[in-house]
């Protein structure tokens, strides 16, 4: 087939035929990748004749209204509709029930656009969210922050206690945590919080058993039995064992679920189930089926792979007790999540808990089963090669089908957002490009052989800002790496904060940016969960680890030379800012000799540097405050490294419990009101 025709067809369907890589070079997408991605979109590009037929079909004028229309307040209808307003007699049925001309100034919210007998959902999104004031807070991998009372993993009581303590004693304004999305309902439990079973529902492994209201009704002997389940998990182990934790908690929670509920509790439970609707029932059904058939629906009996089939309804009826159990777990999670946010705000946090939204879900997950028709088959989401992941990434997650999601009026996306905002004061979007374009990797292919597929950015951002405004919440987009040039401006224009990561903040010549040149509308941090904490980074632990795991794409010596130059540049900037008492050359000699004598000095200086930037939010990794050196996650690995299983520890590698944090010398770095 002619490449020009294939390229034209791809571009008409929002499929990129080339892109700019992390080195700033133009890269072309192979014809094979274009054909595969188009096929996943339902477009046949398998032959020249097929391409020409699809081009002819794509060139035909469409009729009627689009599946959904999203505009910003004050902009009016899109030009494609505005010109035909009089001809079509377009009107808008407001949420209040009033009908007004489509040319009227419309209030924010969901309405219906009408043209004759045809209607379409219309969202008038807020023009701009109100950004927060200047605040700082801890960024936390919650599961790693254990206390003497938790069951071997950090839980929602630990979250409430951390938020309350850091607000009252240190003046923190928020606590940013990892995604708490739902995991497998039975062991083994996948460790990554970024590859969940559902993004709307939460993981009951984070429940504090003793805070479940039914626990208070237990007789003493039953409480002792549950305490015996928890006791082995409370040892200061060197690794986190989700399977052991969930095995014990599952037994305890099943016992609590069997207890009778009073009239008031039953009324509240019924109200929760009514509010959450069919999505909760479908998720609980998936959990019950997964207990019996395994957590990957693609391996279930064929008749159960369709969530809406009669066979699924019959099986759900037979498993009604288990379906109710998993719905009850979500009810109790909702209570503890909202309690954590309430505790944070009561302690004086202006924002409170900032939740994290993963990019997607696992292929065999509940969401992929429930919304099977809304995902693109044969594709995974990932990322092209970059400086820290030079082979690219395949995250093993199916992407939303952009057109089918629009035809569903973005309801699954909207409901997921509404749930997150109801339980916190903010939301971070991991890989914020998920609302604009995603890197699709054909099944069985290399991550480097993928391409970008475009989504309706205005529509997705409109859904996001509307739900955020309703909740009075903050939104942070993780816009690191390869990002479309106009994307960051689009976020800022809507009052959405970007992310400024210190190690990546360089000017066009590759030099560190001075603090005054950082973005104001951003969350400023030193590192991220995919990098080692500060002390691990300055000592080059990430290079040694990637070399040992075979993840480097060039000789280690070259990586180390670049690292030394990069680190020297930053130490020089810190010295220029009068934040570093020791000369950079002396510190570099000590680091070359393996000395840790200047570690605390560097950590202190970097955080003082962040405080000088105009960033509205400053995130301080709790791992940095504790003196941890190990990374939580090494991209490109699964079992080669204990990803997401590293407990919070100090410089000596010994676990640090939440109860002991306030006595840590490292926390003297913080004073009330600023990092």
Could you provide a short overview of the structure?
This protein has 675 residues and is α/β, with parallel strands linked by helices. The protein has 22 helices and 21 strands. Strand 4 (91-93) and strand 5 form a beta hairpin.
Keywords:
21 strands; 14% strand; 675 residues; eight-stranded parallel β-sheet; alpha/beta
| Order of the strands making up the biggest sheet | 18-15-12-9-8-21-20-19
Instruction: Calculate the terminal CA-CA distance, rounded to whole Å.
Output: 59 Å
Q: How many individual helices?
A: 22
Q: Provide the helix percentage.
A: 25-40%
Which of globular, elongated, flat, extended, rod-shaped describes the shape? Answer: globular
Question: What is the total tally of β strands?
Answer: 21
């Amino acid at each position: 087939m002619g490449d020009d025709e294939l390229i034209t067809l791809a571009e008409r369907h929002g499929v990129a035929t080339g892109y700019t890589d992390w080195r700033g070079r133009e890269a072309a997408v192979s014809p094979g990748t274009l054909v595969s991605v188009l096929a996943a979109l339902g477009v046949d590009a398998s032959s020249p004749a097929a391409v020409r037929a699809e081009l002819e079909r794509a060139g035909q004028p469409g009729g009627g209204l689009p599946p959904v229309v999203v505009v910003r307040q004050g902009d009016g209808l899109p030009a494609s509709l505005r010109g035909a307003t009089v001809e079509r007699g377009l009107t808008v049925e407001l949420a209040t029930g009033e009908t007004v001309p489509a040319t009227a100034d419309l209030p924010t919210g969901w309405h219906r656009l009408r043209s004759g007998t045809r209607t379409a959902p219309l969202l008038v999104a807020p023009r701009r969210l109100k950004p927060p004031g200047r605040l700082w807070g801890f960024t936390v991998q919650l599961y790693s922050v254990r206390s003497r009372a938790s069951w071997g993993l950090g839980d929602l009581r630990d979250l409430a206690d951390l938020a309350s303590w850091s607000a009252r004693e240190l003046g923190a304004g928020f606590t940013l945590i990892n995604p708490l999305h739902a995991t497998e309902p039975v062991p083994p439990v996948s460790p990554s919080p970024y590859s969940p079973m559902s993004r709307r529902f939460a993981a009951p492994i984070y429940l504090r058993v003793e805070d479940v209201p039914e626990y208070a009704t237990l007789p003493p002997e039953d409480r002792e039995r549950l305490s015996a389940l928890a006791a082995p998990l409370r040892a200061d182990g060197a690794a986190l064992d989700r399977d052991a934790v969930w095995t014990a908690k599952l037994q305890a929670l099943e016992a609590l679920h069997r207890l009778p509920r009073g009239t008031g509790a039953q009324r509240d439970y019924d109200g929760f189930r009514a509010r959450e609707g069919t999505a909760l029932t479908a998720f609980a059904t998936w959990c019950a089926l997964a207990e019996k058939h395994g957590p990957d629906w693609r391996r279930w009996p064929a008749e159960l792979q369709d969530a809406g089939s009669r066979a699924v309804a019959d099986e759900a009826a037979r498993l009604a007790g288990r379906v109710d159990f998993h719905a009850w777990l979500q009810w109790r999670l909702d209570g503890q999540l909202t309690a954590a946010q309430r505790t944070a705000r009561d302690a004086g946090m202006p924002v409170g808990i900032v939740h994290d939204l993963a990019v997607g879900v696992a292929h065999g997950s509940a969401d992929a089963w429930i919304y099977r028709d809304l995902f693109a088959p044969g594709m995974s989401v990932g990322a092209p090669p970059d400086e820290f992941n030079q082979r690219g990434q395949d995250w093993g997650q199916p992407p939303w089908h952009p057109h089918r999601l629009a035809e569903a009026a973005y309801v699954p996306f909207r409901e997921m957002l509404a749930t997150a905002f109801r339980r916190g004061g903010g939301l971070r979007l991991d890989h914020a490009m998920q609302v604009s374009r995603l890197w699709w990797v054909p099944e069985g292919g290399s991550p480097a052989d993928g391409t970008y597929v475009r989504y309706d950015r205005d529509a997705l951002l409109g859904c996001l800002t509307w739900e955020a405004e309703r909740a009075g919440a903050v939104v942070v987009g993780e816009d690191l790496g390869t990002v479309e040039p106009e994307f960051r401006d689009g976020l800022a224009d809507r009052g959405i904060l970007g992310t400024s990561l210190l190690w990546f903040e360089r000017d066009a010549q590759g030099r560190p940016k001075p603090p005054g040149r950082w973005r104001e509308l951003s969350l400023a941090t030193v590192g991220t969960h995919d990098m080692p904490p500060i002390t691990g980074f300055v000592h080059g632990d990430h290079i040694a680890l990637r070399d040992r795991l075979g993840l480097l794409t060039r000789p280690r010596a070259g990586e180390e030379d670049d690292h030394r130059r990069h680190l020297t540049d930053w130490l020089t900037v810190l010295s220029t800012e009068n934040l570093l008492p020791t000369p950079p050359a002396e510190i570099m000699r000590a680091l070359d000799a393996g000395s840790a004598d200047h570690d605390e000095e560097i950590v202190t200086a970097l955080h003082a540097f962040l405080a000088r930037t105009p960033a509205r939010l400053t995130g301080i990794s709790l791992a940095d405050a504790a003196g941890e050196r190990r990374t939580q996650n090494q991209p490109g690995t699964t079992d080669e490294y204990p990803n997401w299983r590293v407990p919070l520890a100090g410089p000596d590698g010994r676990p640090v419990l939440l109860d002991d944090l306030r006595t840590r010398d490292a926390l003297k770095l913080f004073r009330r009101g600023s990092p």
